[in-house]
Design brief:
This is Phosphosulfolactate synthase. Helix 5 (114-124) packs parallel to helix 6 (145-158), helix 6 (145-158) runs parallel beside helix 7 (184-193) and helix 8 packs parallel to helix 9 (230-237). Helix 7 (184-193) links the parallel strand 6 and strand 7. With 257 residues, the chain is an alpha/beta fold. It has helices spanning 28-38, 58-67, 76-84, 88-97, 114-124, 145-158, 184-193, 206-216, 230-237; strands at residues 19-23, 44-47, 71-74, 102-105, 129-134, 162-165, 199-202, 222-226. The chain has a single domain (19-255), classed as TIM Barrel (Alpha-Beta Barrel). 37% of the residues lie in helices and 14% in strands.
Length: 257
Amino acid sequence: MGELRLPYRTKKNRTYGITSIVDFGIPLGELKNILSDYHEYIDMAKIGIGSAYVTPHISEKINIYQAFNVIPYCGGTLFEKFYSQNKLDKYLLYLKDLNVDWIEISTGILDIPLEERLALVQRLKKDFKVIGEVGSKDTQKKMAAPDWNHELTALLDAGCQYVITEGRDSGTAGIYRSNGQIKENLIFDVIQNVDCKRVIFEAPHAKSQMFFINQIGANANLGNVKIHDVLLLEAQRLGLRSETFFMEEKADAAYVN
């Protein structure tokens, strides 16, 4: 090992080059086994949609992730559910009880004005590390590239640690068309105008993951990754797959900001 010339890859505890998996109900025993082998490739774990609320032994699951140095947090849908019922304070207590100190503020379902989300970031960043999300799960809602850039930048400036570009676990909304095609011109515009070290692009499929790796570099931040795909993704990042084979000569050009 060590003989190949490969792209530079950040190491844990990394601040970019993040792999964020999505957990839709991984059994505890299976989770322990996978993390024992692959935890070095996983930085964050989103307990998907609102599933944390009905996950058996959720506290134990949170503890397992933390024991393997993986940051757990709840999906934005759960935040939006509490928020829609005017129970945000109860949600904050729920996260505190779970010893979860990251919170996602999203607008995937609810139409929460940007100004309101920025105020939430200002409030919540005192007690949590905040992740913002831009984009809707509704494929009928359209946003122009300047609006994406404005919201992403505004959320970062307000105090978010990272911002996520909506893509759903299916890759059919937000930065994707309903048929799964990536809105490439939108992504090119975001890459040119936003600090990509702090943007997590939802990329649930190998095709989309390789697109971002080839456009941004080995250390693109990728989210909604399936836990069984993390080894494959790491190989992709290092140019060990045909579609990323020539990554060794490519710098992280998008990280010039």
